[in-house]
Amino acid sequence: MRLVRTATSAALALLVASGAAISQQGLSGPSSVEADLTPGDGLTDPQPRTSFPRNVMPGYFDWKDGLAENGFRFNMDYFALGQWSDSDLGEGEAAGGVLRFYGNWQATENGSLTFKVENRQAYGDVAPQFFGFDSGALSITGTAFNDSENMLTNLFWTQRDPNGQWTLQIGQLDLTDFVDVYGLVSPWTSFQNLAFNTNPTINVPNPGIGIAGGVKLGETFYVVGAVADANGDPTEPNFDVFETGETYKSIEIGYTSGSDRIYFDNVHLTFWQIDEAEDGSRAEDKGVAFSAAWFIDNTWMPFIRAGRSEGTVALYDKSLSTGLGWYRRNTDLAAIGFNWAEAKGFDETQFTTEAFYRFTISPDFQITPSIQYIRDPLLNPGQDELTVLSLRARIVF
Q: In 10 A of CB 162, how many CB atoms?
């Protein structure tokens, strides 16, 4: 309990520092509720091909727009993901779906309530999140597409300084929305492999009670800190962190070209630590991660990301990723990424490549085919290479 108070006090102390204005999006990255409520990845002048499903349900969307004008915004969306591999192990295919209801209520001028509930289902025997393991690779090929069923992933209050100097989130948090983010981090709209999402050397806990805060230092530098329940369970939300005192902590120091482009133009260093579980189910772990991504002409996004941990609980203990994203004016997105990883207990290294094209039929309807190529899959030394084909679809109401 003392550790929780100490870490939380440190995060709060960070927030009273002076600095320039921080984005009205707060700390949120591309996988957050705030980003999902903003069509077109937050880019200006999107040019959709159609208005489906708005043209089918105009009255419903007009009603939604009216609520948004009065401070209450929400979406309901559904994702489906199918994956197929050429592995000589496992099922050879996996599929799953995710239904989400999320939104934001602007309760006061500088305060708002964010919520998100989800239902995640596997269509068959294997959920896409575990398909890599089933196919013989130490790899999460379908990030977030698991079979956890009903989940409360967000229920938190955001408070902003009236002058835009700091922001604070407290409540049920999904730290992947805040920790080590960059423009292509979202498994809902970008890469599907964890190697290119939140750094696979960081053992970010499942959503749970936590606090995250950020402040701008000068015109271009910022600091973000977070403390959260190390044993979070969004299927059974609780306040156990106040009994066990087992927490995850991180602090990030970053550089950006402007507060409105905090995850488009971004270079940062993240330090993190997670406590040992008293029941012995988890050892203490800690590490550091680096990320650099820059949005050139609002079209090209090269990135390089690296991380190292003690490797006791994170997927990898060393990881290096690089790649390139290409955005089009109608918010189509193509990207390719390359990853090298080393894991504790294995003598060999694993190489992963993923390429995808997100075809934006409308801001509310997207289809994303992708291919993942894994060289030297660590869980199946008898196979030199593994290919995973994926097809993801999203519709928003």
A: 7
